[in-house]
Amino acid sequence: MGEFKSGFVSLVGRTNVGKSTLLNSLAKEKIAITANKVQTTRTAIKAILNNDNYQIIITDTPGIHKPKTKLGQTMVDTAFTMFSEVDVILFLIEADSTEIGRGDRRILDKIIESKKPCILVINKIDLIQKDKLLNLINLYSKEYNFSAVIPISATKKDGIDNIIDEVLKLLPEGPKYYADDEYTDQTMRQMAEEAIREKALKFLNDEVPHGIYIEVEEFKDRLTTKGEQIYDISATIYCLRESHKGIIIGKGGNLLKKIATYARQDLEKQFDSKINLKVWVKVKEDWQEKDNIVNKFKFK
């Protein structure tokens, strides 16, 4: 039996670069919600990778963007706060970049400042020619002494195992921080909120999705008359405007029903149980500026 390694890894990158897809691929579980929209991840979500020889705790951080609200600023602060707490940083960039853009430059400066071991992960390599990839590697390698540079395709799961191998080279010997059967630090209530938000992001267009947040008000489990476990979940989708409320509900309540149905199906798979899900929509103007709500998204 070799040494047991454990430690903490931060996954960082601009919005929509594929961090959540990569996290789910590494964990082989659905942990972070994914959507083809910017700012999908709002808070730091941990994936716990367990093996006989290691336990790696990877945190998917909110995408780096130019904040316009208190919520946006909290998200960016959360991403950068993580740097001081981890053993290794995974910096995810897109393969089709031809220069270091403003968002990536901001992250790079914070990495340089942290002096932490960092692995550069270049995502979406299936979209570009090899010579472009080499140019990109040269460009970034002049900026920082990366511990490794790994080209991947997160959606095709190509190159994913190389990330684990390189992370393990940088982690110390250590204890198990979580039990073997734990794969995330999210509570079931949080997972329910995120599942509803993911489906809302999927089915809503334009600015509406970023003006919502979900709150589960009731989360109870009971046995059915047949003795099967069932979870009763009641949740509210809060939005910024009355006009948004109408869009979320949809004609005859169709869109809200669709969001709730798809979220319930996902949660039944995740919890391996029947789910009774009820979802309402309410308007809460300026919630993105209210401390009591924004504080929920701070790194703890």
Report on this model:
The protein is of the alpha/beta class and 300 residues long. It has two domains: 5-170, Rossmann fold (3-Layer(aba) Sandwich); 188-297, GMP Synthetase, Chain A, domain 3 (2-Layer Sandwich), CATH 3.30.300.20. It is 34% helix and 24% strand. The protein has helices at residues 19-27, 70-81, 102-114, 130-141, 160-170, 188-203, 242-249, 254-271, 291-294; strands at residues 5-13, 45-50, 54-60, 88-94, 118-123, 148-151, 213-223, 229-239, 274-283. The chain has a six-stranded mixed sheet with strand order 2-3-1-4-5-6, with helices on both faces. A three-stranded mixed sheet has the order 7-8-9. A hairpin with a 5-residue loop joins β7 (213-223) and β8. α6 (188-203) packs across α8 (254-271). The longest helix is centred in the last third of the chain and has 18 residues, at 254-271. It is globular, with a radius of gyration of 20 Å. Mean pLDDT is 82; it is low at 35-42.
